[in-house]
Design a protein that fits this description.
With about 290 residues, this protein is an alpha/beta fold. The chain has helices at about 50-60, 80-85, 85-95, 115-125, 135-145, 150-165, 180-195, 215-225, 230-235, 245-260, 265-275; strands spanning about 1-5, 15, 20, 45-50, 65-70, 100-105, 125-130, 165-170, 200, 205-210, 240-245, 275-280, 285.
Length: about 290
């Protein structure tokens, strides 16, 4: 872990990365890709030491309220968050200035911040986005070794349901020849139904690989799935998107199940929902990311 001053914090779409790097160890992690230009070891977490000052300044100057987001590059609830607390502090600033908030995670660590999450959602909207890839707990511990298991994530989603906090699930990635099975998709969607999630984002049954994360992924395949790397190379070569041979069948199952269960499954519709700011304090403001 090391500290570094940042020049800015909010992107043009009001997203932020409070940390750079991750210790969750997911074998498929796209953030390891060379295109993101990490100048330090991926597991050596970079803490943006002035992130909260930059965020407060940006929120103070904003002319209209919107949704704020974090987690697209680095899971915000890495273990270091227990010590640093930047995500909680960022949410407190969102609450102070009347902004909505959403984050993407694979961890149940956010439960310690349920008080702030609920307070934001009472006034505007706070949406927890949870990635779920693998119904099988043993397989989950292999491909996502240092994070809450899928069952633990489901239990956290159930707590959100009980508290009236909206949630969205990312069903991604699905690894060809590993978890691209009907049993896996049905298991995850059953969790989603029981947790009454607002929507499930899915961009196809497959995984993306590019320079940086491809090498790490193949090293992990050699360790945990002997012979699988060779199968990937012979099937996909150096393709960026590795589409499962079961893609058509599983996507049909995905859409039909979500439709039957009343779960949003159109990606555009879900992103519109995530981006829409809501004022529950008596006003009628409704706007997308400004």
């Amino acid at each position: 872990m090391h500290f570094k001053k940042a020049k800015g914090i909010l992107s043009s779409s009001n997203g932020m990365n409070l940390y750079r790097g991750c210790t969750h160890g997911c074998i498929y992690c796209d953030s390891r890709s060379k295109c993101y230009h990490f100048d330090h070891e991926f597991e050596d977490i970079e803490i943006k030491e002035n992130a909260l000052e930059l965020l407060e300044s940006a929120l103070f100057r904003k002319r209209s309220k919107c949704m704020l987001g974090t987690g697209s590059m680095t899971d915000p609830y890495i273990p270091q968050e227990d010590e640093i607390g930047n995500v909680r502090k960022a949410m407190l600033l969102a609450k102070k200035y009347g902004f909505g908030f959403t984050f993407i995670t694979k961890s149940n660590r956010f439960l310690k911040d349920m008080d702030v999450i609920k307070e934001i959602n009472d006034n505007t909207k706070c949406v927890v986005q949870m990635t779920m890839t693998t119904y099988d707990e043993d397989l989950c511990r292999i491909i996502e070794p240092n994070v809450s298991t899928t069952k633990e994530r489901f239990d956290a989603l159930m707590k959100l349901r009980e508290a009236g906090i909206p949630s969205v699930v990312w069903l991604s990635p699905v690894l060809p020849f590993i978890n691209d099975t009907e049993e896996n998709i049905k298991g995850i969607l059953d969790y989603c139904k029981r947790a009454e999630v607002q929507g499930v984002l899915c961009f196809g049954m497959g995984v993306t690989l590019r320079d940086g994360n491809r090498e790490y992924f193949y090293k992990c395949l050699d360790r945990h799935f002997p012979g699988m790397k060779e199968k990937y190379i012979s099937t996909y070569g150096s393709n960026y998107f590795l589409n499962s041979p079961e893609n058509s069948r599983l996507m049909r199952l995905f859409h039909e199940t979500c439709e039957r269960c009343g779960i949003m499954h159109d990606n555009k519709q879900i992103f519109e929902y995530l981006n829409a700011f809501e004022d529950k304090t008596g006003g009628t403001q409704l706007s997308l990311f400004d």
